[in-house]
């Protein structure tokens, strides 16, 4: 939707107003020929020759100029730039024709941009559904693990097999003498994703780093790359955009629940990816946040409006923090650097408080 269409749709101007504005704009626009003459790009003799040819053959001015190579591409750019500058603006004529104040038009334009942003989120959500993103893609190793532990029924299995990665990933088999652990490493990762209790294990291969007394193992497993791909900068920007739209929707008394589905789906996808990658603390924070959003589905718009006004800044802080963790993992293979463990505990406590208060 373009801005004039928005103005008509919301009864700010009529179709008659719009037609009159465009007619006035066309009448007031200079001709390309007048701009060429004004800029003195062609000599008077050459302009006359162009006009003679136009009258004789009935061709358009631009066609004649191009056919005879009278102007370079750069000169054409200068002509068109000057032509656009000389044209009266739609807004100026709108004010003159309709009598609407510039402030009111500015408010309408801001609402138009906001509505377009919302439509873009909805389009992206619908596109995700049509492309099957509602069921996250799963690697072949993870799929085999789910089969191994019996954590999936036949219907779910058929759906996931369609989204499974075509490459056959080698499972990491537990070495001899690993005690009672008889499942593959990939199966253990899938148990964690499903929220089941894990057998006691000690990989012994991963180094650890301590932050303020908190021992942090290096994140080194076959699912880290999948997590980094899932949690791209595009996903982070989308989360931040949803936060911004929630704020604007609450301010305009719009329907907030329309945007919770998209937020919930992205959180669920990130939670699953971080669980498989064994990014423990990040998975915990994402789980807490996902639970909060899920609990909001049962609330009416009046409750949601107040909730967004009071708590949306915390959501923004959470998304900024988990993006920092993502960058840590990519660069250092550990979740926290100095001081971030304290921030994690603070955010996790605050998000847990949100859940209890709903």
Query: Strand pairing plus helix content: what structural class?
Result: mainly alpha
Order of helices and strands: HHHHHHHHHHHEEHHHHHH
| Share in helix | 55-70%
CATH topology of the largest domain: Four Helix Bundle (Hemerythrin (Met), subunit A)
Based on DSSP secondary structure assignment, what is the total number of beta strands? 2
Oligomer: single chain
Name of the CATH superfamily of the largest domain: HPT domain
User: What order do the strands of the largest sheet run in, or round the barrel if closed?
Assistant: 1-2
**Through-space gap between termini:** 37 Å
Q: Can you count the helices?
A: 17
Number of domains: 3
Beta fraction = under 5%
Q: Output the CATH class name of the largest domain.
A: Mainly Alpha
Overall pLDDT: 75
For the largest beta-sheet, the strand count, sense and barrel status come to: 2 strands, antiparallel
Shape: elongated
C-alpha Rg (nearest Å): 30 Å
The CATH architecture term of the largest domain is Up-down Bundle
Which parts are unreliable, with pLDDT below 50 for 5 consecutive residues or more?
133-138, 148-152, 163-184, 193-214
Task: Please explain how this structure is put together.
- A hairpin with a 2-residue loop joins β1 and β2 (214-217).
- 22% of the residues are buried.
- α8 (102-130) crosses α13 (233-251), α12 (224-230) runs antiparallel to α14 and α15 (280-296) runs antiparallel to α16 (301-332).
- The protein folds into three domains: 3-101, no CATH class; 140-198, no CATH class; 224-357, Four Helix Bundle (Hemerythrin (Met), subunit A) (Up-down Bundle), CATH 1.20.120.
- 67% of the residues lie in helices and 2% in strands.
- Strands 1-2 form a two-stranded antiparallel sheet.
- It contains 17 helices and two strands.
- The longest helix has 32 residues, at 301-332.
- The chain has 358 residues and is mainly alpha-helical.
- Residues 133-138, 148-152, 163-184 and 193-214 have low confidence and may be disordered.
- The chain has helices spanning 3-9, 15-28, 32-39, 44-57, 61-67, 73-86, 90-98, 102-130, 140-149, 154-163, 185-193, 224-230, 233-251, 260-276, 280-296, 301-332, 340-357; strands at residues 208-211, 214-217.
């Amino acid at each position: 939707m373009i801005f004039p269409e928005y103005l008509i749709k919301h009864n700010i101007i009529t179709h008659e107003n719009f037609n009159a504005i465009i007619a006035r704009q066309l009448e007031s626009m200079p001709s390309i020929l007048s701009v060429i003459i004004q800029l003195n790009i062609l000599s008077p003799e050459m302009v006359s020759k162009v006009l003679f040819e136009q009258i004789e053959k009935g061709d358009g001015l631009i066609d004649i100029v191009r056919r005879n190579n009278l102007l370079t591409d750069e000169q054409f750019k200068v002509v068109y730039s000057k032509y656009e500058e000389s044209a009266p603006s739609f807004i100026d004529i709108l004010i003159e024709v309709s009598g609407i104040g510039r402030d009111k038009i500015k408010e309408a334009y801001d609402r138009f941009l906001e509505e377009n942003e919302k439509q873009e989120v909805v389009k992206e959500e619908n596109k995700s559904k049509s492309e099957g993103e509602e069921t996250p893609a799963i690697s072949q190793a993870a799929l085999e693990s789910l089969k191994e532990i019996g954590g999936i029924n036949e219907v779910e299995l058929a759906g996931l097999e369609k989204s499974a990665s075509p490459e056959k990933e080698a499972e990491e088999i537990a070495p001899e003498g690993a005690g009672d652990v008889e499942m593959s490493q990939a199966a253990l990762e899938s148990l964690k994703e499903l929220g089941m209790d894990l057998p006691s294990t000690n990989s012994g291969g991963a180094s650890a780093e301590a932050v303020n007394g908190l021992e942090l193992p290096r994140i080194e497993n076959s699912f880290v790359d999948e997590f980094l791909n899932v949690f791209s900068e595009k996903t982070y920007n989308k989360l931040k955009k949803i936060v911004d739209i929630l704020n604007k929707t609450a301010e305009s008394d719009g329907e907030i629940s329309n945007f919770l589905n998209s937020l919930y789906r992205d959180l669920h996808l990130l939670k699953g990816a971080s669980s498989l990658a064994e990014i423990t603390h990040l998975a915990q924070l994402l789980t807490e946040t996902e639970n909060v959003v899920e609990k909001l589905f049962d609330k009416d718009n009046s409750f949601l409006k107040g909730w967004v006004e009071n708590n949306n800044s915390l959501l923004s802080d959470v998304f900024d923090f988990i993006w920092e963790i993502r960058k840590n993992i990519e660069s250092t293979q550990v979740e926290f650097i100095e001081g971030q463990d304290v921030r994690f505990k603070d955010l996790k406590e605050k998000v847990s408080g949100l859940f209890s208060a709903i």
